Amino acid sequence: MPEYAYSIILVVLIVTIMVWWVAKKKKEVWKGELIKKSWNPGDMDNTPSYTMIFKTEEGKKKRFNTPDQRYYDQWEVGDRAEKVKGDFFPKKV
User: Fold this and answer.
1) Is 16 exposed, middle or buried (0-12, 13-18, 19+ CB in 10 A)?
2) For every one of its 93 residues, what pLDDT tens digit does the chain have, with 9 covering 90 and above?
3) pTM for this structure?
């Protein structure tokens, strides 16, 4: 098999995994509460990232990372959230 075929297979595999992961995240439906916020200021090579951890009504933890400081600043620990099917991030309730 030619070497470029391995590259094509790898790219197709990576794209398939990414599409599956995004579809899985968009199909999630839950309600919960923000229990922790944190941010990483980044460095010369990385941009800042903001992390929020939610505890669902079922007791599971959901972690969301975002580079959007405005979205992150809208949330306070204890806020109620709802993740609806089709959205990638939860919304305040």
Assistant:
1) exposed
2) 788 999 999 999 999 999 999 999 899 999 999 999 999 887 878 888 899 999 999 999 999 998 888 999 999 999 999 999 999 889 999
3) 0.78
Q: What angle do CA 77, 64, 67 make, to 5 degrees?
A: 100
Q: How far is Cα 69 from Cα 6, in angstroms, rounded to an integer? A: 40
The total number of residues written for the chain in this structure: 93
Spatial neighbors of 73 by CB under 8 A, at least 6 apart, are: none
Q: What is the DSSP secondary-structure string of 40-70?
A: E---SSS--EEEEEEEETTS-EEEEEES-HH
**Among 43, 39, 32, 35, CA closest to 91:** 32
